[in-house]
Amino acid sequence: MKIKPLHDRVLLKRIEQDDKTKSGIIIPDTAKEKPQQGEVIAVGTGKRDDTGALHSLEVKKGDRVLFGKYSGNEVKIDGTEYVILREDELFGIIQ
Q1: First vs last Cα of the chain: how many Å apart?
Q2: How many helices (H) and strands (E) does the chain have?
Q3: What is the pTM for the complete model shown?
Q4: Integer Cα distance of 35 and 63 in angstroms
Q5: Which homologous superfamily does the CATH classification assign to the domain defined by 9-18+31-94?
Q6: Model confidence over 3-19: pLDDT tens digits?
């Protein structure tokens, strides 16, 4: 199934963190925090300003981004969990 977000929204897939700490301690699933990094799967067309001009998004498919722990809406598509959020909820692009 293909999905395309509308307007200035971005579809992300969370990037899971390691199961171990640097010192070798294994972290159980119940103690893990939600990842705050994601890979952009799809982007919308852009946002319109007051004059009606379309401004394209700065992020593109394949970018790795940082976002807030509880930002966006989680959706499940074909058994895979994604996050849909607005571009202004993103903190930055990981280079």
Answers
A1: 29
A2: 0, 8
A3: 0.75
A4: 16
A5: GroES chaperonin (2.30.33.40)
A6: 888 888 999 998 876 66
